[in-house]
Amino acid sequence: MAIITLDPIDPAAVVDGLDGVNHPMRHITETIINDGSWGADRRADVASFFDELAKDWSGSRSAEQRASALDDVFVRAADWVPRATGFALELGVGSGMFTPTLVKRWGTVVAADISPAMLAEVPPGLAPVMRADASRLPLVDRSTHLILLANMFLFPAEMDRVLADDGAIVWLNSRGVNTPIHLTTEAVLDALPGEWSAVESQFGAATWAVCRRSSRVPPGKIGVVASTTA
Ligand SMILES: C[S@@+](CC[C@H](N)C(=O)[O-])C[C@H]1O[C@@H](n2cnc3c(N)ncnc32)[C@H](O)[C@@H]1O
User: Fold this and answer.
1) What CATH number does the domain containing 137 carry?
2) How much distance in Å is there from the Cα of 91 to the middle of ligand 1?
């Protein structure tokens, strides 16, 4: 595994009092990658948890901060993002706060979520929406070249199955380590099947990583900037 860390831009701490580290969603995030625990009960609990939050989701969060952080990925990790081909898959789309930026940067986006109430908040016409569980997607193998997981659980085997060989996973946490659904870049790469590498950075309070299979990392792109861990 190799991780390239780019310098942060305007690093900022989150000071609103939400404790992401001890949040129940953090526990679920970690258990999914540690022991794969995800079943009907947990699926139903998570869907209803986010159904409850859906109406206020967009109004209580900064769309501008989300757009800027995702834009930063496409600008500073441009060499790591594959050429836009087919559709990008946005999993755990919520109310679609990242979707306009992803559409602007990629083109066609399929937006999926397990919560019907969240999907009902996605502005009409932005992207086709799909109610689906990211642990078992109704998609054929290798069908997408880009997966966006913004504040969303990682289901490693299913991500590996649906992502094209030369595709990329964008892992983004809006509140950095204080995001309830947070994993370090190292934990993401470790959990994915096979050998993966990433470029990562921070924009404001957000942290992000673009992850690719190590055999498909753009030539010359490991070890050329900032710091590298091996
Ligand atoms: C923390 S919210 C993030 C929403 C959006 N990405 C954002 O950052 O504004 C997590 C979202 O993932 C969805 N989600 C959770 N588990 C899921 C699963 N197994 N499959 C699809 N969506 C899921 C939730 O319903 C919720 O909308």
Assistant:
1) 3.40.50.150
2) 7
Percent share of the chain, pLDDT over 70 = 96
| Res 229 pLDDT > 70 | no
**CA-nearest residue, atom 24 of ligand 1:** 92
Residue 227 maps to a domain: no
Name the pTM for this structure.
0.95
Residue 103 belongs to some domain of the structure? yes
Token pair 């953090």: residue: 26
Residue 229 lies in a domain: no
Measured from the CB, is residue 143 less than 6 Å from ligand 1?
Answer: no
Tens digit of pLDDT for each residue in 61-117?
Answer: 989 999 999 999 999 999 999 999 999 999 999 999 999 999 999 999 999 999 999
Q: Which domain holds residue 93?
A: 3-215
Q: In a 10 Å sphere around its CB, with 0-12 CB exposed, 13-18 middle and 19+ buried, how is residue 5 labelled?
A: middle
Q: Whose CA is nearest to atom 13 of ligand 1?
A: 92
In this predicted structure, what is the pLDDT of residue 90? 98
Q: Is 90 in the pocket of ligand 1 (CB under 6 A)?
A: no
Confidence of residue 16 (pLDDT cuts 50, 70, 90): confident
In a domain, 149, yes or no: yes
* CB of 58 closer than 6 angstroms to any ligand 1 atom: no
Rounded distance from Cα 225 to ligand 1 centre (Å): 32
Structurally, the chain folds into a number of domains equal to: 1
